[in-house]
Automatic annotation (TrEMBL):
Cofactor(s) listed in the protein's UniProt record: Mg(2+); K(+)
The organism of origin for this protein: Cryptosporangium phraense
Function noted in UniProt: Bifunctional enzyme that catalyzes the epimerization of the S- and R-forms of NAD(P)HX and the dehydration of the S-form of NAD(P)HX at the expense of ADP, which is converted to AMP. This allows the repair of both epimers of NAD(P)HX, a damaged form of NAD(P)H that is a result of enzymatic or heat-dependent hydration.
GO MF term list: ADP-dependent NAD(P)H-hydrate dehydratase activity; ATP binding; metal ion binding; NAD(P)HX epimerase activity
Name listed for the protein in its UniProt record: ADP-dependent (S)-NAD(P)H-hydrate dehydratase
Keyword Ligase annotated: no
EC numbers, comma separated: 4.2.1.136
Gene that this polypeptide is encoded by: nnrD
Keywords: ATP-binding, Isomerase, Lyase, Metal-binding, Multifunctional enzyme, NAD, NADP, Nucleotide-binding, Potassium
Residue ranges of every copy of the YjeF N-terminal domain listed in the record: 1-197
UniProt cofactor note: Binds 1 potassium ion per subunit.
Taxonomic path: Bacteria, Bacillati, Actinomycetota, Actinomycetes, Cryptosporangiales
BP-aspect Gene Ontology terms: metabolite repair; nicotinamide nucleotide metabolic process
Length: 465
């Protein structure tokens, strides 16, 4: 901010916000005469909203500002600009007409601890207008959302669109904040960031750059061999789903070891099957746990695999087994990727809580592993200080039995193909989420349909076709 003249950053932010508001109004009947309500606090977000509102007013919109603070605390420059353009500061009760747009500028990234009573009253009004058809646009962050965690401790604004300045905020991507933010668009206001980010949003371009591609001299072994110890006589489907996930990854050879080998051979004749881990042959990475059971034989398979220095993906029953033997993970030489949902995480590292990023980081540090914390927004954290990843590609319908088995197979194939653990987890979660989205577009989502859409997801994302 230092090189900018006074107010320069706010003018850039307000101009970017105004452009987006104008485009929304143009799509819904035009700017001229459109009723717009600005909800403003005493900080810079309120100033951004007021300056943007002044631009709308000069184009003929009917702009009214409602303050969530005492009038004298409203941004003076922004209010002066609004009134000069024909807008007005009014009381909430003076707004008689349903607004086409509601602009939330109550709190920004400096706001913590939730909304105060006056702000909460305006958030409730915004929700009522939204239910009646108004579009709600948040300035940088929906008010009431903790910017660094996504936590909501009381009333908060739910936006259809959030216009974020300079970068995403963590609170827009994880926790309840991800549900409150709606569509998020980032406006470039010319900021440079000297520090590395806390969190990186995984994109298709990033996955495409990470994904291993075979060269002209590769063979099935050099592309990577992945081994899977999953499924059982009781749960053969888990073996079919996890090996199917592995087959859609970049590795050139898939080995299966376990009691469901006949079912795997029938479903996937490409997979080489063995009765036990000891007889499976050489691999470059292991996937263990999905549908394996938790008896002594299952525990021995997990122990044997974790005793190697190979990359290992632990899922489902494998997580249950190691939750009572965490030293098996902590003392490993090779990399480990853990793939828990919230209840599995609780057995490994305690309650997730509202700060999902901090929880994943804590578990990764304590266990010396990469943690893929599954959820509406999947968070991946490694045991080092590198930025974490968040995957926003999935859909809520993926919360169904067996989809995690597919995911673990994809991640294991990426590990066998030579990808680093955090990137393997992030890339696997992204293509898996994309497959879930494709399955949801086609009808009800079950794991076998996610698996069926996985090759198309890989084609679209990783191969760019």
């Amino acid at each position: 901010m230092a090189p900018l003249p006074s107010g320069g950053l706010m003018r850039r932010a307000a101009a970017g916000l105004a452009r987006r508001l104008i485009s929304l109004l143009a799509d819904s009947g035009g700017v001229y005469g459109a009723p717009v309500v600005l909800l403003v606090g005493g900080g810079d977000n309120g100033g951004d909203a007021l300056f943007a509102g002044a631009t709308l007013a000069r184009r003929g919109a009917v702009v009214r500002a409602v303050a969530g603070v005492q009038d004298e605390r409203v941004h003076r420059g922004g209010l002066t600009a609004l009134t000069a353009a024909g807008g007005r500061l009014v009381e909430l009760g003076d707004v008689r007409e349903r607004p086409a747009l509601v602009v939330d500028g109550l709190l920004g990234i400096g706001g913590h601890g939730g909304l105060r009573p006056d702000g909460a009253r305006l958030a409730q009004a915004a929700e009522a207008w939204r239910a009646d058809g108004s579009l709600v646009v948040a300035v940088d962050l929906p008010s009431g959302v903790e910017p660094d965690t996504g936590e909501v401790t009381g009333s908060a604004v739910t936006a259809d669109l959030t216009v974020a300045f300079g970068s995403y905020k963590v609170g827009l991507l994880v926790g309840e904040g991800a549900l409150r933010a709606g569509l998020v668009e980032v406006v470039d206001i010319g900021l440079d960031f000297a520090e590395p980010p806390a969190l990186r949003l995984v994109t298709a371009d990033a996955v495409r750059g990470w994904w291993p591609h075979p060269g002209p001299t590769d063979d099935k072994y050099t592309r990577g061999v992945v081994g899977l110890a999953s499924g059982s006589e009781q749960y053969p489907g888990a073996a079919i789903l996890s090996t199917g996930g592995a087959l859609s990854g970049p590795s050139g050879y898939v080995r299966y070891a376990g009691a469901a080998r006949d079912a795997v051979r029938t479903a996937h004749p490409e997979v080489v099957c063995s009765p036990t881990v000891a007889e499976a042959g050489r691999v470059q990475a292991w996937v263990v746990g999905s549908g394996l059971g938790t008896d002594d034989d299952a525990a021995e398979a997990v122990r044997r695999i974790l005793a190697t220095d190979l990359p290992v993906v632990l899922d489902a029953d494998g997580l249950t087994i190691v939750s009572k033997r965490l030293d098996w993970v902590r003392e490993r030489e090779g990399p480990t990727v853990l793939t828990p949902h919230d209840r599995e995480f609780e057995r490994l590292a305690g309650e997730v809580g509202p700060d999902r990023l901090a929880a994943a980081r804590r578990a990764a540090s304590e266990l010396g592993a990469t943690v893929l914390l599954k959820g509406y927004r999947t968070v991946i954290a490694g045991p080092d200080d590198a930025p974490a990843y968040v995957v926003a590609a999935g859909v809520p319908e993926l919360a169904t039995a067996g989809t995690g088995d597919v995911l673990s197979g994809v991640v294991g194939s990426l590990l066998a193909g030579g990808l680093a653990p955090a990137e393997a987890a992030a890339a696997g979660a992204f293509v898996h989420g994309t497959a879930g989205r494709l399955a949801a577009e086609a009808g009800p989502v079950v794991a076998s349909r996610v698996l069926a859409h996985l090759p198309d997801a890989v084609r679209r994302v990783a191969l760019g076709h």
